[in-house]
Amino acid sequence: xxxSKLLILASAMSVSATAFAAGAHSDGHGMGSGEPGxxxxxxxxxxxxxxxxxYEPETIEVKAGETVRFVVENKGNLxxxxxxxxxxxxxxxxxxxxxxxxxxxxxxxxxxRDMMEMDMGNGHSMKHDxxxxxxxxxxxxxxxxWTFTGKGNIEFACNVPGxxxxxxxxxxxxx
Length: 175
Prior knowledge:
Layout: H1 3-22, E1 34-36, E2 44-51, E3 54-56, E4 59-62, E5 67-74, E6 80-85, H2 87-102, E7 106-107, E8 110-111, H3 113-116, E9 133-136, E10 141-148, E11 154-157, E12 169-174
Parallel strand pairs: 2-5, 4-12
Antiparallel strand pairs: 1-10, 2-3, 5-10, 6-9, 6-11, 7-8, 11-12
InterPro entries: Cu-binding_ET, Cupredoxin, EfeO_Cupredoxin
GO molecular function, one term: metal ion binding
Domain EfeO-type cupredoxin-like: 38-86
């Protein structure tokens, strides 16, 4: 690689690292939607299936203060995310997810997990390990245990670029 290409790459990585390290969330990852729960306190389990650009179920009803265990399964052909948060948090998180695509972490139906470990500076990486979210390849499943506070407008969404805009989000309604 010649010197000019190296400088361009280093500059791009520096700008992206600075943006990623600064964080895009005004209300934090999942803040305002609840908090991580304990599996032993879950009142029920909800299975959420992710297909290419929709969820089943599309709406979830919870009680304020309820702890729910989610079993999330990717039944689609693409990488998908299940993320619990406010609409503004999802909008900000989409910028971070775009960087994951730009850096080759998300590659259609595959995740480059080695790239997720890459040091972006200031101790930040592209790990996707927030307690309110899972990012899954086709055929994978994972669990989230979440306690809902009952405040605000809460939804679950896939913030992989273009998926939210295609309708891959659902409502969390409080009973």
